[in-house]
Specification:
The protein has 14 helices and twelve strands. The protein has 353 residues and is an alpha/beta fold. It has a single domain, classed as Alpha-Beta Barrel (TIM Barrel). The strands form two sheets. Strands 1-2-3-4-7-8-9-12 form an eight-stranded parallel sheet. Strands 5-6-11-10 form a four-stranded antiparallel sheet. 43% of the residues are buried. The model has no long low-confidence stretch (mean pLDDT 92). The protein binds manganese (II) ion. The site of manganese (II) ion has 6 residues, from helix 11.
């Protein structure tokens, strides 16, 4: 059990507070100051490792070393960016980081229409409404996300990269789902040697939400696509980050089926719940099954049944008890989520004996 922690200067939650959540055995982090395509050096990684270990924490996963749009589009800069990515993987491997979470979503990372939707109980949460998204001018979208983020740097929404939004959209014009998939395969094959050398597991995060938005292709949204990727690059370095919240945005996704189909290829899992309010509208609920639309027990049981021995973490939480934090990443609700997940796991362990 881990918690995501953004590092000094980026996270509102302190490691000393994370330490008081029972059961947390490590952290998942990233170098927030880096743009996709840039190299992570040994010194960069040593610095964040030192910050974590000062409070007794090991870094168990890098989430994420982001992939540049040049790699996703397949531009002439692709090979240079992949060479840089390999250098970052070398540095991670030498530092003993074995799991790298990444995604292959064009232009925008995870997307919400509201970062502060008030719920019936007075808590605030991240929400998505398709009609609102459909009315957004993409050129203004980053500004509106930043405004909602209230001064916090959103992971995947780094300034700089999205300054040339219209250019980026134009660059994706001819990128079909199949081309994007082939570019992902090209990337995975290109980094295979360095991953095998250091026993690094690349773990792709599903697209969030799990359908194409703004006319951009999305290719990791359901079981069929996940199985296709795992079998096309059938290598121990090619794996899945299972995210119940992202896959669960589509009520049709069979998440227990995905966990079984990807057995042995899920080194990292994000566990959270969503509530479907109506077609195209969902919000992130508390972790409990009864608060959302996902059967969290069934998911955790599927991990237990398949012998999961990777790293998991409670994913986003609501903002409760007046907390002001990075949207989705407050301390309190994620701590409740961690305790809930640990409770289910302990019950499964003991019931099985
Ligand atoms: Mn996730």
């Amino acid at each position: 059990m881990t918690l995501r922690w953004y590092g000094p200067g980026y996270d509102t939650v302190a490691l000393k507070d994370i330490k008081q959540i029972p059961g947390i055995q490590g952290v998942v982090t990233s170098l927030m100051g880096k743009l996709p395509g840039e190299v992570w050096t040994d010194a960069d990684i040593a610095e964040i490792k030192a910050a974590a270990s000062a409070e007794g924490f090991e870094i168990l996963v890098f989430e994420s070393i982001n992939i540049s749009d040049d790699i996703k589009i397949g531009t002439e800069k692709r090979d240079e960016h992949i060479a840089n990515y390999i250098k970052s993987l070398e540095a991670a491997g030498k530092a003993g980081i074995k799991t790298i979470c990444y995604n292959f979503m064009p232009v925008f990372d995870w997307t919400r229409s509201d970062l502060w939707r008030e719920r019936e109980d007075g808590s605030f949460t991240l929400a998505y409404n398709q009609e609102v998204i459909d009315q957004i001018d993409v050129a203004d979208f980053r500004t509106s996300m930043e405004k909602m983020a209230d001064g916090h740097l959103l992971p995947g929404w780094e300034p700089g990269r999205l300054d040339r939004i219209r250019e980026l959209f134009a660059a994706y014009e001819d990128v079909t789902e199949e081309i994007l998939f082939q570019n992902l395969v090209y990337f995975l094959n290109a980094i295979k040697d360095v991953c095998l050398k250091y026993d690094i597991k690349m773990a792709i995060h599903p697209d969030d939400p799990a359908w194409p938005i703004f006319g951009l292709p999305r290719i990791i949204t359901d079981k069929e696509q996940i199985v296709r990727l795992l079998t096309t690059v059938d290598s121990p370095h090619n794996n899945l980050t299972f995210c119940s919240g992202s896959l669960g945005t589509n009520p049709k996704n069979d998440m227990v089926g995905i966990i079984h189909a990807a057995k042995g290829r899920i080194p990292f899992a994000h566990l959270r719940n969503v509530r479907h309010n109506s077609e195209g509208d969902f919000e992130e609920s508390a972790h409990l099954s009864r608060d959302g639309s996902i059967d969290m027990f069934a998911i955790i049981k599927a991990f237990h049944d398949t012998g999961f021995d990777g790293v998991y973490r409670p994913d986003h939480g609501r903002m409760i008890w007046g907390e002001k934090a990075l949207p989705g990443y407050g301390l309190y609700d994620r701590a409740l989520g961690a305790a809930y997940i640990e409770g289910i796991w302990e019950a499964l362990e003991k019931a099985g004996k």
